[in-house]
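Supplementary notes for students who missed Thursday's class. We covered one full example, reproduced here. Read the sequence, then the structure, then the short commentary at the end.
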Amino acid sequence: MTRARLPLKGAWIDCAYDGETLTLAAVGSPLQYLVKAPTSIPARHKQSEERGRLRRLAVAALRDAGAAGDVDDAEVVWSYRAG
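Structure (token representation):
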């Protein structure tokens, strides 16, 4: 399993790749919106854009950490935990 951490303002995202699944765990209250169900169409759009951006950053960080395999096509699982 390859792991990496994406530091963000007041929080971070723990990334892990096991060869099939890319797990992204948002840590810290500023990132709750990434995993909570959006209440409006603009919020859903923002969540989708931000998830895509952070997924690309996570893939790059995991490749730098030596992830083998096709990280781009991995299933993405989002979670949240308080930090």
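Commentary. The first strand starts at residue 2 and ends at 8. Residues 13 and 26 are 5 Å apart (CA to CA). If anything here is unclear, bring it to office hours.
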